[in-house]
Amino acid sequence: MLLHLSISQFTLVDQLELEFGHGTSTLTGETGAGKSITLDALGLALGDRGNGELVRAGAKRADIHATFDISNHEEARTWLEDQEMDAEREVILRRTISADGRSRAYINGQPVTLMQLRTLGEQLIDIHSQHEHQSLLKKDTHRRLLDEYAHAEGHSAEVRIHYKTWQDQYRRYRRLADSAEETQARRDLLEYQLEELAQLDLKPGELEELESEQRQLANAGDILNGSYQLAAMLNGGEGDIAEQLHRALQLVSAMPEQSPALAEVAQMLDSARIQIDEAGSTLSRHIDTFEMNPERLTEVEERLSAIYSIARKHRIQPAQLAELQQQWQQELEEIGAPDALDKLAGECEQLEQAFRAAAGKLSKLRIAAAKKLADAVNSQLADLAMPHARVELALTALEKPTATGLEEVEILIATNPGQPARALGKIASGGELSRVSLAIQVVTAQTSRTPTLVFDEVDVGIGGATGDVVGKLLRQLGERGQVICVTHLAQVAARAHRQYLVEKHSDGEAAFVALRELKDAERSAEVARMLGGEATAQSLAHAEEMLARA
Fold first, then answer.
1. Which residues are bridge partners to 4 per DSSP?
2. Domain count across the chain
3. Chain centroid offset of residue 233 CA
4. Residues with Cβ < 8 Å from 392, sequence gap 6 or more?
5. pLDDT tens digits, residue range 186-210?
6. Residue pair 47/121 in contact by the 8 Å Cβ criterion
């Protein structure tokens, strides 16, 4: 329930503080006084779009706070907890709009997105406007109203999910079916190419080993010849490196005085001699085991030739063959097995069955609720001076199912006895549409779980005894919760639990909108003005009678 509304620097409002309570509250005033400004501000606090033009001239920003009691609103508290926000007895929705058009939204002081503000706002308030009869000409609105009346929103959402899942899979099936021949050709090519690489059986690191071995075998003669020459230089007889080092050591040892430097030289020469001896031994073993193997060279070169040939065939480097094989394998897996089309068709059939089962449950709920809703609306129409009007909700099976279910929902009306029910736009006049819209709004509001209902001049085009009926209906709604109504009808204002007067003032430089609650004589005077434009003794007496009767 809306407890408090604070509006600052919004259009013609300088500063406005409003307290609301349980029951029906009406906002009245002269035409053009700004009655709808309050609801416009409330709409912004609930997540409506805004712009810098809504900021009062000369001000930096507009600021709107709306405080709600959610102590009995389990859904709102659950939503706040899911968003990790405070979910105590009250919640404050705040919206600011700067003169440059920038907007910020807050819930309990925590910055939120406009979508979050709107999502919570929709749970707290249901706003009905005088323009809703225009949307009443659309079949989408008819379906939404019926689903809400049947409390089938959850079933409707489930049907949409099933339909989307089914259609997504079906589109995949159609793509695969339409390209089945091309897919099979690609599958055959991939399998052939992968088989070719499988036969090649290239092992990790094999290419590098083969290339190294090929270089060694191809240069075996030069390697062996060079090895013999090197062995002769190291330890091959007179004048070799080993003999030279031996003489050098003898010279150092024969010196009469051994300085530290000479001792270090002797140590290094001895170490070099040991290294040369080891190098000679290693080289000897290499020569003893080294083989000239033309047959192995032929084998290696043939293996390398096969690898290079496949790499050239696919226009890649030999080292990229393993990566290419992996890519082909992945693509083949994505294409799927030859029976993938049949498997996908089976999955589509199962998904369709799941959709039709959910849609069937929704259809039963709609059928059960359609007559009840029509009867309730017809009862209200009789009270709204349309006793001969008859509303029907036609459920027509669709040739092809849609995300909304298996049937089309349309509200039909016959305004005179003996006439067949036809589409609203073809039968009802503008005034009749307004009353039909009001009747539907009143009926659906009675089953609404939203604690606060707002009606913005839905009684346009209605007057006299019918207006009194509208006032009774809105008061009845207020007995069960909270109703806020902008009205121009004295009959509606008199029936309200409380009444607020919207006035426009001017100081010669700027205009201001003010709003205050009316009590006793002030309220009688305002109702009298609404009756005849001027508060006369007769209109005042009539107004007091209406208020007393209410």
1. 19, 67
2. 1
3. 82
4. 374, 411, 412, 413, 414, 421
5. 888 888 999 999 998 888 888 898 8
6. yes
Domain membership flag for residue 270:
yes
Question: Is the Cβ–Cβ distance between 202 and 322 less than 8 Å?
Answer: yes
Q: Please choose, from the candidates 431, 444, 471, the residue with its C-alpha nearest in 3D space to the C-alpha of residue 26.
A: 471
Domain assignment present for residue 258? The answer is: yes
Q: How far apart are CA 251 and CA 263, in angstroms?
A: 12
Q: How confident is the model at residue 338 (pLDDT cuts 50, 70, 90)?
A: low
Name which of 427, 440, 331 is nearest 381 in CA terms. Answer: 440
Residues across the chain: 550
In this prediction, residues 327-337 reach a mean pLDDT of 79
**What is the CB neighbour count within 10 angstroms for residue 509?**
5
- Mapping DSSP to helix (H, G, I), strand (E, B) and coil, where does residue 11 land? coil
Q: Is residue 240 included in any domain, yes or no?
A: yes
Tell me, yes or no, whether 290 lies in a domain. yes
Name the residue range of residue 201's domain: 183-335
Q: CA-to-CA distance for 525 and 519, rounded, in angstroms? A: 10
Tokens 């002797």 correspond to 266
Give dist(CA 186, CA 172) in Å, integer.
18
CB 408 within 8 A of CB 111: no
Q: Which of 427 and 255 is assigned the larger pLDDT? A: 255
